Amino acid sequence: MKQISQFSLANRKHFADMLDDGYAGLRQKAKRRLREKAEVLRESLIKEHAEKNGASAVLKQLDEADRKRTELIVELKQLGFERADHGLELFDRDTNPLDAVIEKRIEKELGSERDIDARFDSAQLAMLTVSTLQDAHQLLKSVQDV
Prior knowledge:
By secondary structure, the protein is mainly α. The protein is built from six helices and two strands; from the N terminus they run H-H-H-E-E-H-H-H. Helix content is about 70%, strand content about 5%. It has a two-stranded antiparallel ribbon with strand order 1-2. Helix 5 packs antiparallel against helix 6. The radius of gyration is 39 Å and the shape is elongated.
């Protein structure tokens, strides 16, 4: 006589639970293995198609251009400049000696805010002593073009 072991409801439930979508369950492990294998295959296929279509050569050119760009940025900084949206700016302006030279030149050619304050203060004092509307207008006109 052959004896068949009974597979209880509790046993069936336990095995069914092993197949559910739990975090550490068999299903999640199988999905994770699939994703890992798919990613390896994806990278391989991308590389294959890139080589067939010439994209690998273009990528090498881009890598070389990036390397050259980095070298040029370093060279520009060594010269005391950095690239900005509108062209060039001084690199590390706070400690760049060229900044003082430029500020002196600006003050020599255009003046400074202190000069403007002095001129307006003088005009303000003079305004208190003007006798006619025409004199007041001329006084305002003298500071208007500053």
